[in-house]
Design a protein that fits this description.
The complex is a heterodimer of chains A (329) and B (285). Chain A has 329 residues and is an all-alpha fold. Chain A folds into two domains: 44 residues; 203 residues, MetI-like fold, CATH 1.10.3720.10. Chain A contains ten helices and two strands, in the order αββααααααααα. In chain A, a hairpin with a 2-residue loop joins strand 1 and strand 2. In chain A, helix 6 packs antiparallel against helix 8 and helix 8 runs antiparallel to helix 10. Chain B has 285 residues and is of the alpha/beta class. Chain B has a domain of 164 residues: P-loop containing nucleotide triphosphate hydrolases (Rossmann fold, 3-Layer(aba) Sandwich). Helices cover 41% and strands 22% of the residues of chain B. Chain B has nine helices and ten strands. In chain B, strands 6-7-8-3-9-10 form a six-stranded mixed sheet, with helices on both faces. Classes of the chains: A mainly alpha (329), B alpha/beta (285). The interface between A and B is medium-sized, with 20 and 23 residues.
Chain lengths: 329, 285
């Protein structure tokens, strides 16, 4: 096309093109940057004027300082751990050299978990809670979507428990786990089980409800196809029901994961399960002049991780969804 | 001895429960169909054509009477009565090939993998869709989707092929194309076909008999018209054929004089417009 244009025509078109490109660039990159800068400016301006008992409210600069502080603390802790293990190994080797029958004892490093460690713990906990919830919610949702009777039976319970805050569940879950999860050599710590289970309880509902809606809205024609082919109930579920409700199931899963991540922070604060929530709580109790800035780092981290989790789910959803024309956001 | 028919509908009637009491949609539908016959069901919207088809398919249960296929009562849906749905109803997450394959795997016990593959490919070739076997339904046109839908139905090796306005959603040219394909396939396979249509030309062009339904409620068969046109039929020569135009006239008379639908003025006016357009289209074809 452009080859057929003469030079003067091209030149006449050039400014228009440049303006269009510029507008696209502004929309995609400039405006979001502007938004972030505006936020930082307001934050900076407001923070200066807030004085708490723990000192001035941290602005972006102080928070950035703490980011570096937390990272170098993590680095230092790692070096300490490496040193500890190296020493232990050397000591064991020495003792074994003296006495070949000596069975070396390996002790784990018991330094306080760093901010980075806390992030991993939180991610692990939310993953386990979310996984368990999905394992229950998707089949239950399919059942409720397929059978009107099952739906009528479960719906009141679902509607009743859906709006319950995790904080209301937590004391009950704590007592139940303490009573039932008794073992001399527990695979998981109690606080972990409590947090993960609380996350599960709150993750169930969006997946369950969206799956049920997705399944009950399958096109009648597709169900008729299944009937004409005389698909067995299992084949019906796996060949017709599941694929056709995948988009709705994933909408539910994404909502669930978002809720799970929010719930987790609250649960960790109260259950004292290691993780970002506990980090925030500990800093709050600690009450040093750096605490507020450190909490702010945690807040931003929680937001960023939540965002990344949601984007990851969106990627998976795009991968498995057959309806490529659907706009997912 | 009484002649044994292939497919028999006897005193078929159906009632649907409504808040105002049972609504009789169909009653006293009697029809005997021979093996290999091509039957069209024609009538105004809401006259219960689809209901008749669904009862034969087993998707609806008749309240009175019943359907017998080869001496067996029809009680539930099954692949020996394959359905081609109006809006193709292919599984959107499966390619054309996989859609047909699902039907083949389900209906062919004891076929080897190789035989299954060959049968799927054979049926796609029958509807001239081999080139798009790996395309998803969303990637092909409406006419192509309907072809795959027909291939899927044929692949079940049905005794009776049930078609619910198979070409209703297609443009006139594509429709003519698919009608020709369908006629070829019917000629070579000899399936019994029941097809619902709104299109008078389509009915006359394809059928051995046209079953004309009265308006509901309590719809039933009004008249049955035998189409004694020699096969193979050619739409261009038929357009000028006296006998063909006589059949068209018969069907049109039934639909627009004997069973004229009483509807609000505006709806009638718009229907007339489409009728005129239809007539133009058929003249063009």
């Amino acid at each position: 096309m452009s080859k057929s244009l003469t030079l003067p025509q091209l030149l006449a078109k050039a400014p228009a093109l440049r303006i269009a490109n510029w507008l696209a660039f502004a929309k995609n990159a400039l405006l979001p940057t502007l938004g972030i800068l505006l936020f930082l400016a307001i934050w900076h301006g407001v923070a200066k004027n807030i004085n708490t008992s723990l000192g001035q409210f941290p602005g972006p600069a102080q928070v950035w300082e703490q980011v570096n502080g937390l990272l170098s603390e993590h680095q230092a802790q790692r070096e300490k751990a490496a040193l500890f293990y190296a020493k232990q190994e050397a000591r064991n080797a020495e003792r074994q050299a003296k006495d070949p029958s000596y069975v070396p004892k390996v002790r784990a490093f018991t330094g306080a978990p760093t901010f980075i460690d806390q992030i991993w713990t939180s991610l692990y906990t939310v993953a386990v809670g979310f996984f368990i919830a999905s394992l229950v919610a998707v089949p239950m949702g399919i059942l409720c979507g397929l059978s009107k009777s099952a739906y009528a039976a479960f719906n009141p319970v679902i509607q009743l428990f859906k709006p319950v805050s995790p904080l209301a569940w937590l004391p009950l879950v704590t007592m139940v786990v303490s009573a039932l999860y008794v073992s001399d050599d527990p695979m998981f710590s109690k606080s972990f089980v409590i947090s993960a289970f609380t996350v599960s309880l709150c993750c169930l509902w969006p997946t369950l409800i969206n799956t049920a809606v997705g399944v009950s809205n399958i096109e009648t024609d597709l169900i008729n196809v299944s009937k004409v082919l005389r698909l067995s109930p299992m084949a019906h579920v796996f060949k017709i029901v599941l694929p056709s409700s995948i988009p709705m199931i994933f909408t539910g899963l994404r909502l669930s994961l978002g809720i799970g991540w929010m719930v987790l922070i609250a649960a960790e604060m109260l259950a004292q399960n290691p993780g970002l929530g506990k980090f925030v709580w500990d800093e709050f109790q600690n009450g040093s002049s750096e605490s507020l800035a450190r909490i702010m780092v945690a807040v931003l981290t929680i937001g960023a991780i939540g965002l990344v989790l949601d984007r990851l789910m969106l990627l998976v959803q795009k991968q498995v969804s057959w309806d490529k024309s659907a706009v997912l956001r | 001895m009484r002649e044994k028919h292939h497919l028999e509908l006897t005193q078929v009637g159906i009632e649907f429960p409504t808040p105002k009491g049972p609504f009789t949609a169909l009653q006293d539908v009697n029809l005997k169909i021979n093996k290999g016959e091509f039957i069209s069901l024609i009538g105004h919207s809401g006259c219960g054509k689809s209901t008749v088809l669904n009862i034969v398919a087993g998707l609806h249960q008749a309240t009175t009477g019943g359907v017998i296929l080869d001496s067996q009562e029809v009680r539930e849906p099954g692949p020996e009565r394959a359905v081609v749905f109006q809006n193709h109803s292919l599984l959107p997450w499966l390619s054309a090939y996989k859609n047909v394959e699902l039907a083949v795997k389900q209906t062919s016990k004891g076929r080897s993998k190789q035989e299954i593959r060959e049968w799927v490919e054979h049926n796609l070739a029958l509807v001239h869709m081999s080139h798009a076997a790996d395309k998803l339904p969303s990637e092909i046109s409406g006419g192509m989707k309907q072809r795959v839908g027909i291939a899927r139905a044929l692949a079940m090796e049905p005794k009776v092929l049930l078609m619910d306005e198979p070409f209703g959603a297609l443009d006139a040219l594509t429709r003519a194309h698919l009608q020709d394909s369908l006629m070829e396939i019917h000629a070579s396979l000899g399936n019994t076909v029941i097809m619902i249509t709104h299109d008078v030309d389509e009915a006359v062009f394809l059928s051995d008999r046209i079953v004309m339904m009265t308006n509901g409620p309590s719809a039933t068969i009004g008249e049955i018209l035998d189409i004694n046109l020699p096969r193979p039929r050619n739409r261009i020569t038929l357009a000028d054929n006296v006998q063909y135009n006589h059949y068209r006239h018969e069907v049109l008379t039934f639909l627009y004089e004997k069973q004229r639908k009483v509807e609000p003025v505006i709806a009638v006016a718009s229907e007339k417009v489409t009728k005129v357009e239809d007539a133009k289209k058929s003249d063009a074809a």
